[in-house]
Here is the input.
Amino acid sequence: MRDPNTTPRFSARRRSLLAVLCAALSLAACSKDAPGGGDRGADEYEVLELRYQGFAGAVSVAELAEDLGYLAPIKLNYVGNTISGPQDIQTVVTGDTDIGSAFNGAVIKLIAAGAPLRAVVGSYGVDATRWNGFYVTEDSPIRTARDLIGKKVAMNTLGAHHELMLKEYLSREGLTSAEIAQVTLVVLPPVSGEQALRQRQVDVSVLGDVLRDKALERGGIRPLFTDHDLFGEFTAGSYVLSKRFMKENPNSARKFVEAAARAIEWARSTPRDEVVARLRSLIERRQRNEDASVVQYWTSMGIAGKGGLLSAKEYQVWIDWMVKDGELKEGQVKPEDLYTNQLNPFAATPVQ
Here is the structure.
C-alpha cells in the first residue's frame, strides 16, 4: 500500500514536470515565426487589420502576402487607390493608413522633413526584366538629352522615382541645372501615358512593366533611356511604417514584414506561369472593376535583397544626389536614419 505521506511529494514533482513541458511547448510555438514557420495566436497581435491603398490593375507585395496566407490572422483593409508613392506614404504620416510604399528617394525626403517613419522592407525594384523606360514616338526628333530642353515629359508624380531618374540622365549627359529646369514635367496617371504620347500631348512618357510591354506590342515607340540603363539592378522602393505604430504594435509590425518578405521570396522562386495565374485570380476576386489581363506581362518584382532586405547603398545614392542638387544639406540625413532590417526574418544579423 502506498504511503499517503508520499502523495503530495509525487504530485508536486509531476506538476513541476508538466510546467517544464508547457514552457518548452510555448517556446516552440514562438519559434515558428521564422521564415516559412507558423503563426502566433490572434490574441498575440496588437492589431488584426492594416489599412492600405492599392494600385489599379496591379498587385502589391502586401496583397500577395495576404492572398498566400502569410499575413493571417491579420487582414488588409483597402481604403482606396493611389497613383503616387509620395501620397501613399504621406497617408501613413497622417494616420489614414498603416502601411505605405514609395520610391526610396521620396522616403528620404519625407523623413528628412521630420516625418516619423522607417522603411522596413522592399516593395518594388528594377532588374533586367522589370524597368521603366522614357519613351518617345518612333518618328520623334528627340535623340539625345539636349533634345529634351523645352519639351514635355509625362510621369506619374513629381519628387519621386521618375523625376530623379530623368534628372540623373540629364545631369550625366552634361546639362546644367538651368537647362534641366527647362524640361517640363507633366503629371499623368500611368495608364494615360501611352495615349498622351501617341496623341502628341507630351514629347516623352514614362512607361514601365505591363504598360510598357502592351505599348511595345502596338509598336511605334522607342526608348530614349531606361532606369536599368542608369543603375542596373536595385531595390527602388520600400514599405514604411510609422515609428509610433512599430512601438505600439511590435508583433503586428513584425508579422507584416515577415509576410511581405515571404511573399517576395515566393514570387522569386515560383514558376512565372503560377505567379501570373495567382495575380490574375487575385485581381478578379477583389472585384474593383480592373483589367486583370495586364498581369500576363508580369516578369518579377525586381527587388534585389533577399526577402526585401534593405541596404544602405540603396538610400545613399539618392542622399548623394539630393545633396548635389541642393535638396539636402551634407550630413542632414544618414541611411541608418531611414530604414531597419530588424523585423525581417531574412536578416542574418539584425541591422538598424
The domain at 132-231 is CATH 3.40.190.10 (D-Maltodextrin-Binding Protein; domain 2). DSSP finds 13 helices and ten strands in the chain. Residues 92 and 98 are 5 Å apart (CA to CA). The chain has two domains: 42-127+233-337, 132-231.
